[in-house]
Amino acid sequence: MSTASTALIAEDEPLLAAGLRADLARLWPALQVVAMVGDGLSATREALQLQPTLCFLDIRMPGQSGLEAAQALAEDWPDGADAPAFPLLVFVTAYDQYALQAFDAQAVDYLVKPVDRARLSACVQRLQARLAERDRAAAASTLANTGAQDPALANTLQQLRALLNLAQAGAEPAPARLRVVQASAGNVLHLVPVDEVIYFEAADKYVRVLTADRELLIRSSLRELLPQLDPQLFWQVHRSLVVRATAISTALRDESGKVFLTLRGRPEKLTASRLYAHLFKGM
Amino acid sequence: MTARQAPHNAAMPAPPLYLPPTSPPLLRSWRRRLLIQGLIAVSLAIGVSGFITLTMGGGYQRNLVFSLCIGGVIQAMVELGRHGLSACRKRLGHRSPQLDAAWPGWALMAPWVVVSALAGQALGHWLGSMITGSPVSLLVGYDNRGMTLVLLLTLALPVLVTYYFWARTQLAHAAARAEAAQRLASENQLRLLQSQLEPHMLFNTLANLRVLIGLDTERAQEMLDRLIAFLRATLAASRSVSHPLSAEFDRVADYLALMAVRMGPRLTVSLDLPDTLRACLVPPLLLQPLVENSIKHGLEPKVDGGRIAVSARRDGDQLVLEVRDTGVGLSGAAGAACTDPAAQGSADGGFGTHQIRARLQALYGSAARFELLRADDGDGGTLARISLPALATPNTDASATTTEAGPR
């Protein structure tokens, strides 16, 4: 390991955060815990700023779940030839709701609370092995820096995608499909057939609804809206963007793995994150 | 979505409890019924013929044959009508447990019994005279008084027998209803237990305990004591009908103490129980689900946490219990799924409030009320309020709950 490994711990229960930190200090004295946060939004913010080697993410956290924090991190992580390596992720949960043990621990590890020492020790060894391997690979490719996507990152992204799909499938049973979007502006209620919507964009506590000639706001979250949309027709391309597939005109992929979309009926270009770039491939 | 938005109880509903029906197999019950019917017909015929012979003479043997014929025909017709009319009503789309037990209702059965009695007289006489070889009818040779008596008997006896079978189906129906209620009660009990012993709560508490053991043994022991008391109360709650309000507050205090260790500075707790109300009787774990909802759907999803206040006061004859939190509130994005009264019965929070309503209704009827409100002072959050008759001992009739004897 070229530089000292650093870690972020995101856990809303202070005793558990302190406990994990103490256990890690015993098992991995060289590991430096650079941030301890108690909610999902801070986890993403701190991780993007401090760029730790490892992130321990509690799944159930206020504000934003550990899974959503990981998604945001994967989407906003800097890219380019000299970008830092994406952190290794370890999810921590009291109850294995998503059957995490079915996942390949090599890409995304997990811990079940209460975390026993043997399990944590095995996790630490795996993490150390992966870091060592990453350093070797980096050393080998310094001369031929092609900017191609790191295979370890690709693996992590794939696991994250699978987890997000599981979380979405495990959400409350989908209510009836939305036919008409109703958005109130002052005293006027605007109705838009859902087929006319070109894309939805999350904006704080609202969702922007864009058609060819209108822009409306609805008081909802994208998370609440998604199960009501036909996934064949509306594609999520970013954690804050859902686009009608038939309105996408071209998709241009850049070196970092991001995809830029042009639309029929709207002038602006949208960016699909690396988590959803796999949706765009030639037939 | 967050893990919180789909509480696992909602994602994985409790498996329906299958309890096999307790009625005997169809064939056995059918044969038994036929035997009982036959025995009743024969014994009535023996009684009637004896009575007629004694009061009006005419030869016991002949009277018995006629009585058997008339009684048999009437009973057969009544039974055929009972099953036939029920089947007809069912075919017409009527559905009821009584119809399933072959009871078409008195409105159809009363005229049918009269028809059967008259037709039975005629047909039975004809049959009787065929068997005895005498063309003479049973009625011939009696005076007016005798004829009236015989006619009355042929009308009254089928009515009585029909009434007896009707009463039996009613009893069976009541028993089936009681059994269904019992089944529902145990199913609710199991779901309550499942929602109380929620794995997230349990394992997170144990994880905290595990850390605390290394840091502060004394506090760890205190936390363990609270956990033990919480578990004991949860497991025992189904066994008693009521307990003092002070005990209810103690259980709530246990739970909140566990949560306070887990949430640290994010949770502030206040409990207010006036001394004069300590002895009031309330159903066990009445407040518990409300406090849990406040934590789970109000305060846990909120980054800064907040406070929860549990209080009791007297308002005239009513005991008013309130659980108030400064959480995300009823229409808050994360809490909407569960604390919204409109969404009751959906997620597990819905189960909790639904359960409280059902228990209050069963124990106090319209004398108790449960409301879930938006807290209207500046701090936001949710206010849950229960009002129930103060000091009144809950109605302890057997159908509501069963009390188990023995040590707890």
| The CATH homology group name of the largest domain in chain A | Response regulator
Strand order of the largest sheet of chain B: 2-4-5-7-6
The SSE order of chain A reads EHEHEHEEHHEEEEEHEEEEE
User: What name is given to the CATH topology of the largest domain in chain B?
Assistant: Heat Shock Protein 90
Q: Secondary-structure blueprint of this entry?
A:
The complex is a heterodimer of chains A (283) and B (408).
Chain A: E1 6-10, H1 14-27, E2 32-37, H2 40-50, E3 54-58, H3 66-76, E4 88-93, E5 108-112, H4 117-141, H5 151-169, E6 180-185, E7 188-193, E8 199-203, E9 206-210, E10 215-218, H6 222-225, E11 234-238, E12 241-244, E13 248-253, E14 259-263, E15 270-272
Parallel strand pairs in A: 1-2, 1-3, 3-4, 4-5
Antiparallel strand pairs in A: 6-7, 8-9, 8-12, 9-10, 11-12, 13-14, 14-15
Helix pairs in contact in A: 2-3, 3-5
Chain B: H1 8-11, H2 26-56, H3 60-91, H4 97-100, H5 106-132, H6 144-196, H7 199-215, H8 217-236, E1 243-244, H9 245-263, E2 267-272, E3 281-282, H10 288-299, E4 306-315, E5 318-325, H11 336-339, H12 348-364, E6 369-374, E7 382-389
Parallel strand pairs in B: 2-4
Antiparallel strand pairs in B: 1-3, 4-5, 5-7, 6-7
Helix pairs in contact in B: 2-3, 2-6, 3-5, 5-6, 7-8, 8-9, 9-10, 10-12
How would you describe what is shown here?
The complex is a heterodimer of chains A (283) and B (408). Chain A has 283 residues and is of the alpha/beta class. Chain A has two domains: 6-169, Response regulator (Rossmann fold, 3-Layer(aba) Sandwich); 180-279, LytTr DNA-binding domain (OB fold (Dihydrolipoamide Acetyltransferase, E2P), Beta Barrel). Chain A is 30% helix and 27% strand. Chain A has helices spanning 14-27, 40-50, 66-76, 117-141, 151-169, 222-225; strands spanning 6-10, 32-37, 54-58, 88-93, 108-112, 180-185, 188-193, 199-203, 206-210, 215-218, 234-238, 241-244, 248-253, 259-263, 270-272. Chain A has a five-stranded parallel beta sheet with strand order 2-1-3-4-5, sandwiched between helices. A five-stranded antiparallel beta sheet of chain A has the order 10-9-8-12-11, with no helix packed on it. The longest helix of chain A has 25 residues, at 117-141. The radius of gyration of chain A is 21 Å and the shape is globular. Chain A starts with 5 loop residues before the first strand and ends in an 11-residue tail after the last strand. Helix content of chain B is 59%, strand content 10%. Chain B has two domains: 26-180, no CATH class; 197-389, 2-Layer Sandwich (Heat Shock Protein 90), CATH 3.30.565.10. Chain B contains twelve helices and seven strands. Chain B is rod-shaped. The chains are: A alpha/beta (283), B alpha+beta (408). Chain A binds chain B through residues 12-16, 18-19, 22, 38-41, 59-60, 62-68, 93-95, 97, 112-115, 167-168, 170-172, 205, 221, 223-224, and chain B through 1-6, 8, 10-11, 199-200, 202-204, 206-212, 214-215, 261-266, 300-303, 305, 333, 337, 346-347.
